Structures
1.
Amino acid sequence: MVDEPEATGVVVEFEHVSRFFGEAVAVDAVSFAVGQGEFFSIIGPSGSGKTTTVRMIAGLEVPTDGTIRLFGKDVTTLAPHKRDTPMVFQSYALFPHMNLRDNVAYGLRMRRVSKSQRNARADELLELVGMDGLGERRADQLSGGQQQRVALARALATEPRVVLLDEALGALDAALRVEMQGELKRLQDQLGCSFVHVTHDQSEAIAMADRILVLNEGRVEQVGTPAEVFAKPETRFVASFVGQNNLVDAISHGSTDEGLQRVHTALGEFLVQPPTKHALEKGQPVTLVLRADALRRVTPRETPNEFEATVAGAQYSGARVTLLMEASDGTEFRMEEHESLSVGAPLRPGDYLLVGWDIGDAYLMK
Amino acid sequence: MTRTRSSIRVGSPPARVGLENRQAWLATPALLWILLGLVVPLTAIVVFSFWTGSSIGMSSDLTTSNYANILTSDTFWGTVRWTFRVLIIVLLSVTLLGLPVAYFTARVITVEWIRTGLIFLLFVPFLVSYIIRMITWIPLFGRAGIVNWTLTTIKVLDAPSDFLLYTSPSMITALVFLYVAFMVGPVYFKLQQLDKDLIRAAQNLGASPLRTFLTVELPLIRPGIVIGWLFVSVMIMSDFATERIVGGGLSPMLAGTVWRRAEVLLWPQASAQAVTLVILTLALASGLIRFAQLDQDL
């Protein structure tokens, strides 16, 4: 919506697509377009409709309403086997009664490619994903990561112009997932096909996507590059779903001479950059978005934006620590800092800190 | 408690053996039961089959003549051929009838309690005794039965036909209806187990519904089909009543032949035939298992 895919051609296009299951709405008037060679991630919590969306691209679900186009052709009700939209599943879904070569060659077999040709191609693909020489093995003799490589090779065998990944890396452990993310990007650069990738894991989307679509309760919350989605969430939902953002209710309270926006919150009065798109009226309710890593310990009057808070707890992850804080009015928020700041003077629950942020590090959202 | 927990942990073989031994005791009542109910009578039959029969009973003089008589009898081999022919026809029929039923129930019906209900319905006839189920064929297909009455009334037939009852086609029909449920059951459960993502993956890679069935679903439900065949085969091999009640005893099957010998107290002959029947059934079953590589799939 913010930026259209590059003019090289639209691969997948959704136009007001909805899918109802009885009374329940899984996907609600969703529109988006995926460009040629683009890595497009759909993220959202479970139940947000992301799996239904990707299944509709493949034809495994039929929309209740709206139009789906593949390469400009209306495929809304086309049977799945008549589209060329192979999918990689979270469960891998390798055929247990076939060896790996036959698994990879399955798509070619369905296209009636001769046995010798399709076997040669399957071996080529197994080599591409680093599984050369294992064609005779069966799926149950492989680790999860290996199975996922084979599933990917199988999806790529027919040289599709778009590959669907449904939580494809979800079943892998963290280290393997990062390795496969790199592998996927390498393959995409090499083959030039588009990927539509569904995940609940935002870090996976940042790592791989050219653009991200955020879904919530079947509706599009935001589409944009990872930088846009993470730095400038457009809705409260996106702000709370991606990254670690603190959302503070605020009331606009006029501007300063320097053109800064003055806002009232339960934590005190703060100065923020005014929203670029639309001027705020005095007394208008807005949301102040404070990234957890923008908050820091400050000395008094170092910045115009400061308030007192008590430490409630801490979560360590590597060199970063997320402090759970409580402001004087009881508002809870998160602050992320480098672990070394606490060395020598470890924080205890109940400790007071003066917390603040630089003017440019927070922004307002309607 | 601690011991149990540690013995479950993978990678501690001695403790695990201990646990398995303790669990093995759970099988003891069943083993005793099998010993008493299966091994003892079977041994008796094997022993009797080598005894000498006479008009007043049998004596324990050992002889192989019971087997010699059977194995050189054209009538016996004729019965064997006929039994296997009936078996193959019935297996084909229950497969062709049962697969679509199982498939429909597992795939088309999406509401779970309706699915379970349909499978239950399949076994409802078994709540009624075998005799009642079979006797009802007579008012239905007998000379004065409903079908004959209808056909003569609407003048399709001039006179009631005997073809419907006491013939081999009617016997085969009866056997199919009796045992088709044992085909549907295993296939249905296998279809239920099948990971739906595999079907999605196949369609996704360009397989039409028919080719998805032939290349993915059919190979994966094969163990269910073979288990169905095993159930049906074993039951048909031991069914001695249907050929009498519906078939009128005019198309004798192996199990019925054993029954007729036993009826006239020819114990050694009956035993020898029974042993032959058991061997043939075992050969058939192992052949089926081998054919389906069932030992690898289970």
2.
Amino acid sequence: MAEITLEKVVKKYGAVGVVHGIDLAIAHQEFVVLVGPSGCGKSTTLRMIAGLEDITGGLVKIGGTVVNDLPPRKRNISMVFQNYALYPHMDVRANLGFGLKIAGQSPAEITKRVSEAAEILGLTPLLDRTPAELSGGQRQRVAMGRAIVRNPDAFLFDEPLSNLDAKLRGQMRAEIKKLHQTVKTTVVYVTHDQVEAMTLADRIVVMRDGHIEQVGTPMEVFNHPLTTFVATFIGSPPMNLLPATITGGAVQLSDGSTVPVPDRLRGFVTEGMKVQLGIRPDDISPIGHGLSQDGPGAELRLTVALAEPLGMESLIYTHIAGQEVQAKLYGPRIVQPGETLDFRLALDRAHLFDAATGRSVRAA
Amino acid sequence: MIKAFTTRRPEMTPFLLLAPAMIIMLFVVAVPLVFSLWTSMTPYQLTKPQTIHSFIGFRNYARLLTDSAFWIPFGRTVLFLTIALNVEFALGLGIALLINKITWGQRGLRTIMMFPMMFSPILVGFQFKFIFNDNIGILNNALQSLGLTDQAIPWLVDGKLAMFSIIFAEVWMSTSVFAILLLAGLFAMPRDPLEAARVDGCNAFQVFRHITLPFLMPFAYIAMTIRSLDVARAYDIVKVMTGGGPAGRTELLWTLIARTGYENSKMGMANAMAFVSTILSILFTYYFYRKLLAARRFMGGVQ
């Protein structure tokens, strides 16, 4: 059993705080992704779990044991680094078996476990090569193999795919997912790529400026973002946010036009409240070219500023109440800039955030 | 005239452009080399110039092969080189690792570390000659004042101690060659494999033994190549400190060659010795260079 618990974990470099007291409980065999922009403290948090950074305050527990003062080698974790961090002077076989050799395993046992790991990752033909003779994807696989041979309590991944090209990244993402299904182990995975977070995670931890913004399953985080930051960070293209005021039971945009308050949010707003209306591009579509045609909505006549055809869909830039928004058109139809179309806003999936705090009105 | 020549024979232009360099090389390198090779095959004595004309083939070399007066200094030079290089490597590595850990004043220390290299070897020899002097040397003075010994230790007079003293001076002067190159290696070292090794279960010593040291070896081999050439032709320090004595106990190859050539004026024999000695340098250079190439093969793809 290797659940990982963080209690009020703080990291400071001198006077500069990087992580400001985060609490997180990661269950046994859970795949948790820490996601956030550069400098949000996600890698630092991971390195504190690994033991590569000192913990300034709070507790880190692995399998119920406080590990704050244990060196990395006593934590029984393994880590995959962004730059692979292979040992350049050893061949693949020695790289994979290094941890076992240090642990004092017998040569027969090392050979057995190295060949098992090599089999899982398709590295068997490469065992006698040195890292210099491998491609980026192969090196990444060796790094993963080195992590799994030791049979650790937890895997820590530090942006493992960000040095790979887009196509390889997609393949490796799928392999990591498969690997987790084969080798059931607790995984903590750090990335700045929200697609990786969505596709891999059992639970996503969205971080910003050393704080946790939201923890939830990918669908929870996507469908019910707690803050405007999460709303714009998760999902691509990002959610549109329009400043508005609750007036006469409706959402009044800055140009005076109104759309109804979504039914599910009706109980959470008060008259005169300053809000931001959040609506994803997928939910603003020309009538007849949207994802859903029924349910509560609002219709607006908008002028297309720019259209980016993507094949089966087009991304449309337009303006609502003077502010640029992105909308989606489904179906192979070419739209010209300057064209005026009737759009439908699917309000059942819209969000309202308190303009002052940036938090969802449901949470406030 | 030259223009007319190159117009008529354009294929000669490269040779014409290279000619000055070729002529200089010919007179500075080739002629002296051929001349010394020739004299090594004569019984040439500086005091009897006409002996340069009597060719005796490989007789000098043949005599050398069985002459223990040559092979003992030869072996001593190899021993001297082995001890000096190993001690310098160990000390240089230690210094480099320590300086690498320092965050404040590192630049200043790096400069100070280079000081011994800036002194003339002859002056270093004199300095240590006086430090190790058995009557007036500060070392014996200090040892006696501290009560560690009650009689003068004959540092430069006892055969074994004299060799030790010379090695000490050599090491003092040149450890920084290793230190500076190994420090450069430490600066170039990627951090990720070190962290990976720590996560993989290594303690600090194992990280050093399995990751840091293999990474540094190419740098050590560069230093060893440079230093083996240096030490194999050691002359000045030995000449100043002991002059090869006592009773030839610190005689190295080049002090022997100089003695044979200039003091005994047997220049033909001295040149033969010199040619045999270059074999030593070539062998060491070849050995370390091979090691360097092997070590660099995998360093090609650190990332």
3.
Amino acid sequence: MKFEVPKKYVEKFMEKYGKDADIDKLQAAYERSLITHGEDVGVIAAQSLGEASTQLTLRTKHAAGIATLNTTSGLPRIVEIFDAKKEISTPTMNIYLKEEYEKSKQKVAEFANRIMEIKINDVVSSYNMDLKRREVTLLFDREVMKSYGFTLRDVEKLLSNMKLEVEASENSLVIRDKTADSVKKLIRLRNKIVGLTMSGIKGINRVIINETDDKRYWIMTAGSNLKDILKIDEVDQTRTTTNDIIETYEVLGIEIARNLIIKEVSETLENVGLAVDIRHIMLIADAMCFSGEVKGINRYGITGESSSILARASFEVPLKHLINASLEHDVDEFKYVANNVISNQVAPVGTGSVKLISLDYGRKSEGKTDRKNKEE
Amino acid sequence: MRLDSNFVFNKIFGIEFGVLSPRMIEKMSSVAITSSELYDIDGFPVDGGLADMRLGITDPGLICRTCGNTIKDCPGHFGHLELARPVFNIKMIPKIYDLLNATCDSCGRILIPDSILKKATTTMDNIETREGPLGKKRYIRKLIKHAKSINTCPFCHSKQHKVKLEKPYAFIYNGQKLNASDVRERLERISDADLQFLGLNQDYSRPEWMVFTVLPIPPVTIRPPITLESGQKSEDDLTHKLTDIVRTNQRLAENIKSGAPEVIIEELWDLLQYHVTTFISNGTAQVPIARHKSGKKLKTLEDRIKGKEGRFRGSTLGKRANYSARSTISPDPMIRLDEVGVPLQIAREVTYPERATEINIERLKSLIKNFDGYPNASYVITPDGIRKKITESTVQNILEEVKPGYVVERSMLNGDIILFNRQPSLHRLSMMGHSVRVLEGKTLRINPASTLPYNADFDGDEMNINVLQTEEALAEAALIMNIKNNIVSPRHGLPLIGAAQDYISGSAILTRKDTKLDKSTVEDFLTFAGIDTKLNKSTYTGREIFSMLLPKDLNFEGESSVYKYSKDEDAYVVIKNGKLEKGIIDSATIGKENGSLLQYLFVQYGGETTAKFIDQLSRLALITLTKFGMSANIANFDLPERTMGEIHKIFEEGNEEVNSMLKNYDKDVEQKILALTNKIRGRVRNATREGINENRNEINDMMTTGAKGSIMNFFPTAGMIGQQLLRDVRMSNGYEGRLTSHFKRNDMGLIPRGFVVSNYRDGLNPIEFFLHAGSSREGLMDNVIRTPVSGYMSRRLSSALQDLKIAEDLSVREGNKIVQFMYGEDGLDVSLSDKGDLNI
């Protein structure tokens, strides 16, 4: 089979040696550097990351500065990505605004304050509960409220569509709920009220404004809500990102999720100064995504869906797989690595993926055995 | 059935899974178990007992009454036990539960209307072609879930009462307990036609087979008794459990026969169910664990299969190998890179089966003759497969007998290809092909240039060798797995094999601008390095000698480590037509995990040339060091007064700043101080770097050439160690409000929070020493925790990706699924290209 040199290399070659350089030289070099067919690239990728990960730091390490966020890094982050966890430990977003806004620090700061989620809890200074009267009293911190630009009316409005009796005084609210007849229910009511979002976007807990070299400002957040952020007009949708892979998959689709996996893994490795070729990371990302949804590398994800029963059984919880297989009358075809290793046969990868018919120690050749089996 | 050890077995193309039917169990059984006794008074197995000689043989000398083989060839045979009352198979309980609720309680049909079922068959086929068998399974799961929610049978229109499962195995129906017989009856009612919608198969998994009426009795060969030293037999855990089952079953049968009260029968039935359950799985939730008299948990069937030491991971995926050896390793720079020094003792013991041909027969005969010396042969195998040991008495006969076609098991010889391995085998480079070099001594010898891929050092590490027994394996080890062809790692495209420490110092000294050697010294050098050229000058520069190692058409340019450090133009490496024109050859060009020259050589000229280059270079470096000498001393760490003063000043300034910060306290002060300590460290490092006396400073030479150490090691040695951290913040825990009782309470200054002002050369004061040790310990703990976490990740990755391979069109496929259309988007092999790029 002849393989054409990818464009990017041709262009680089032309740039270096001129337009009429001998392209055959490049072709020869390309063919010499090609991967061998049959190569067990999955295992190579797994080993490349596995071996490198023994050198990763376990705990989160953060640069000692003030205006930075604490993001998970190192081995825990890699494990988290490969697990395709729904809830990642430190979700964060990089929000860029459209060009007309991003140059003004004031506008960016205003925007940042607008998206930061403020809950009622943030403006309450203390609260009181009275079981006898079935009411919760919230005492508000005037100063803080003012700094966020809220009034008691806003809180009242927020509570108006809940079936509650609300009574306002100077800087407190008395909320009565007739159904709250136990301490438990009262506490639940209080927690519900206190957790209500007054303004901002749900999930954005902290905002930090960063400055680029050419005096543009962008926002880093703790907490992530890609779907709602992208809906905002000022946001530059082409550059705004989150580090939450599942969220990205749900909002932007599988291709973007795949690219994000590659980006997040290579950045994590780069931060600790480990060299792993991008091909290995790409392969793992593709293996996680090629089915059309993001699947983790664990028994609930791609390993659990391996075609070979024995491969699944030899990974984790063997009995479950064996019993399901017998109930469903499954057939494990010995076309994979694990089952051939188990049965002491040549696995169909690498040199095992080609057959050489030879007389082996005077025994019947493999070729003959094959034929015999087929006849039967 | 007679099994011959030379029988040609067929290749396994697949395994079909199914549930054993009672008929099948009886059919494959060689004996019906009738007695709970194992042996009679004379110690012979009882007929119909659990050690019946028809179940297989575990004693040498006895003959199996089923197959007529001895212990070596008898595979063991199943028996069966007729159960007085049916019992559940504990592992099938969830499926039985599903089935009971998904089918009608009176007519046994699946609770889904006919109209849907008719469509379901085609939908199922469609899904299977579109999404594969897993899609079909998902669909069936949905069907069952739907059926379970239906309350009126669409066929007989009877109202449904749902069954409740009371764990572990009690089914409650209409407030009454369904026993195993009742359940089995209901399962029998499910029609064959409905089975496909329930994920079952009429020929391989009829639902009623999930309740045992006949129990298969495993052969004794899988549960052999062990004879203790006292001569007493100790039975296997499985046999213990089986005895319980048989005994309970007998009692149950007797009680039923004698018409005992229902309560007693129920009780015994429950007991039988318990024993059968623990026989299969001893550790199901809410089932009491069956124990030995001593309190030890019985290891039953499930325990044998699962876990790291279980059948799958312990026995079938991890195998023990013969023809292998293990010993401590030690370095030997004088053997070739691709060699491994094997002790004579090992070489004599571990053999390679060489086939006699007309060409080698004389040589093999001389090995046979020398059976008690070295090199020798220890066994011959005739074409009929008979193995004959060569001894004093047999040697003459064997010598006459051997002719082409015989296989001679001879000792290891120089040049044989073997596999060399060190655990943990984290990547494929942990096991590579080497050629044998038989040496005196008892350790395995390894060239120090090849330690990195194995991650080996010589503080007592042991390594394994495996002698290959077939020609195919030998060919792979000699070519694909050979260390020479694995110099560059597939992980990042950098050479893992190369020079380190002394070799870098040596070659840096050799390639210095002012290194000149007279003819006789050059002769010594070249002899030592094994280079054969004519000398026609009286003096040579070091660079000229280095050039003799290079291929004549090599053109290369690159930064050296010294150049990166000092920007000294002369240190920049330029090789034109195999001549080193300028530049210092150091870690950036030939170092491990670094060397750009090695990487270039490997990609352009191949492994053979690169290996030879590394071999010759390391010897050249060695003799250079021997000739020129290199020694460091404590004065290398001396910094000028001025620098020491500056470092002191940096600390004083920092201290003052901290004090003023503490006076204007705000909530971020701790973070600000932390940032400041980092700044202090950076300033100390820079001051130290500028203060290093570069004149005849070997430590500095080692740092700049990349042989060993860096400024990160130098500045705490010569300058100041700096802040000690614990969990990335300044140390603060200890006594109330202070680290140790030597400080004032709540003093947040630098020193009271673990700042070490001393350096390693002058030594730390006791408090500093204590705090420094605390910080170091954190690193050790971190390492201990990290190892299993990353090991588990590795295992998951390789389990998930093991079947991905390159197809002929360079796409990546897993079976018939395409994962990537072009490997890595361009099809390049990382280790064969320029670090994953194409540069020419």
4.
Amino acid sequence: MNLYTSPALGSNDQTVERIDAQPVHPPGAPRQPLYEKRKKIFPKKAEGRFRRFKWIVMLITLGIYYLTPWVRWDRGPFAPDQAVLIDLANRRFYFFFIEIWPQEFFFVAGLLVMAGFGLFLLTSAVGRAWCGYACPQTVWVDLFLAVEGFIEGDRNARMKLDAAPWSFDKLWKRVAKHTTWIAIAVATGGAWIFYFADAPSLAFEFVTGQAAAIAYSTVAILTATTYVLGGLMREQVCIYMCPWPRIQGAMLDESSLVVTYNDWRGEPRSRHAKKAAAAGQAVGDCVDCNACVAVCPMGIDIRDGQQLACITCALCIDACDSVMDKIGKPRGLIAYATLEEYESNMTLATNGGTTSIDPSRVRNADGTFIDNIRHFNWRVIFRPRTLLYFGVWSAVGLGLVFALLSRDRLEVNVLHDRNPQFVLESDGSIRNGYTIRLLNMIPEPRTIMVSMEGLPEATMKITGITDVPGRLFAVQVEPDKTLALKVFVTLPKEAISAQTNDFRFIAEDRSSHEQDSYAAVFNTPGAKK
Amino acid sequence: MADKHIDEISGVETTGHEWDGIRELNNPMPRWWVWTFYATIVWALGYTILYPAWPMVSDATRGALGYSSRADLAADVESARIATGGIVEKISSASLDEILADQQLSQFATAGGAAAFRVNCTPCHGTGASGGQGYPNLNDDEWLWGGDVNAIYQSIAHGIRDSVDPETRVSEMPAFADMLKPEEVRQVSSYVVSLTGTPRDPSLVDAGKQLFADNCISCHGEKAEGNRDMGAPNLGDAIWLKVRDEAEIAKQIQSPRHGVMPAWATRLGDATVKQLAVYVHSLGGGE
């Protein structure tokens, strides 16, 4: 795939605005005091395909976050009709057609494992795409920057406003900006609580002051974190608070896509390219316009190379591409590239590292690139590392799907009385006590048949169900509830033989033919008199 | 620290300590850390003013908020009482049969009775209510004074041979050492053992049967089936309160021992005794 194309190659009659921008976080900067005042970043608005892609991702992710709790899903009269609901009070989790009980929490653990391996897969294939596009910090900072740009203007206007003394104009803009930010933050915190209760009724209670204190405090805390992290701290969160930039070093390799400044074609950079070329000096494609620095929300200069603070949002690619278009050079001076192809091209440009970068080594006489230049090849995505991650990811996913499809919606658990282990009755028979818990895991009432298998002479009595001994009883279990039964099993004197006797409790729903059983033991005194 | 040492590479002063050539840079604390530290000091001072803290000669400062963990506990107990939603009061006013018929009440009473049982009854009857030698097993279907819930309630409330309660259950088996000769006692005990299906010398059993009819049936019944009005045990079933052994039975005939249970109504209150009765009734032998 050739990334270095432009609509009008060779037309360099347009002029490029030169921006006065410096990287705020250059590598190898002189030591700064740890508590040095933060340098403000005023990202310029970028335009281009990655900016458009980021808008789309923002629309989708925020849409999912804000709207999901309002989606309805009919489950009948005995269960809530909210499609996604974490019902902490009743210890149930609803996700469309799936209902999860607390003991099935491994589904959530499995999803977290999948999220982890998905992140590994994504990072080893396309670098920090999570950081650049989908991370909530990135999305909300993007949203807050859009608000800031709308109210205060673009980079230059904001810098001017920031430096200006307090005036009515500055005051209302600042108030408007922070008010909008807080409104977004309240909506963000507010959306969170709707995942934990019926959204429409909670919204009504919340507005009328009847909601639980925990709802208000949760909204308050999330409002504060959204406002502070997304509005005030911004890039500091990624650089100083987040562990992922540190972990990702182990995830990236020479075949991972990262946002790369292709200095093999950009250097030597020159602000007076024509003059330098006329003087017979080597001239690279970089016109040192600093557009890439100006748009960077992290305040870095991508031309310093791959660095921890780069979240790979690719806005510098958009900025540089538009400059390349203007001066009639091929796009892709800053581009997604793997370290492998970058180094191969670098070797060409420096003649194996023996000379400084010479653009003429990678170009033909007409300015086009020589054929030996390596471009990104989609096939490098499919390498053992990514295939392994994908394999684990899909194995966990298939395991979860299998577990979901084969899980029981009727269960029986039995607790054998241990004190006393058995009771001698006046007629010489032996009685054991059990606590049987029936789990009706569907939101419909069910009649469950409880019976015994094995110990043919034994009979059972169920407290509250019957006083007449038998071996098969019908029990009503409420929808989506458990029912504990106290069961006494009696073995007549003549049948007492071994020390212990194995049998099974069977719970069966005859209408759906669902069945579960429990291997139980009957204790007898055995040889004891 | 007399000699000031500056690290060559970073230009930062070190702490002056050295471990095998390794020195620690004396970088200033981050400002946020220092402010957090000051904030914790302010917080701690405020805390000691608001809460009990400073030790005085005979007491400690009470704190401006007047907090005490005892008051906290009392509030918790009160809120737990309120959380039961008046169900204890319902149990107090309902009859035992009404409690058994009401699922909610009987569930609450069974759980409450189990808790009260563990505190008050386990020393004699055991944690599993299975008793011991001389202490009845409450799980089985053998009852000295009756096994329906009202009889159980009566036994718990007023006790067995309680020294104070006028309504307590009382009975006394006479000491037959004065009335029967040792040989006759042996004959009776042989007969009693034979009732449970254990073969014994027929001559002793026959003589014992006659003596039993003359002396024992007024309380234990013609078929030795016992009499709950007098707390006389059934001697023919598989369950023995004391030891199932001929010599022990002979001892019991000659100089009987009698179990004593205190009356609990005055100690625990009526509602708790009702819950205990429901719990004991639920153990499996209830009638």
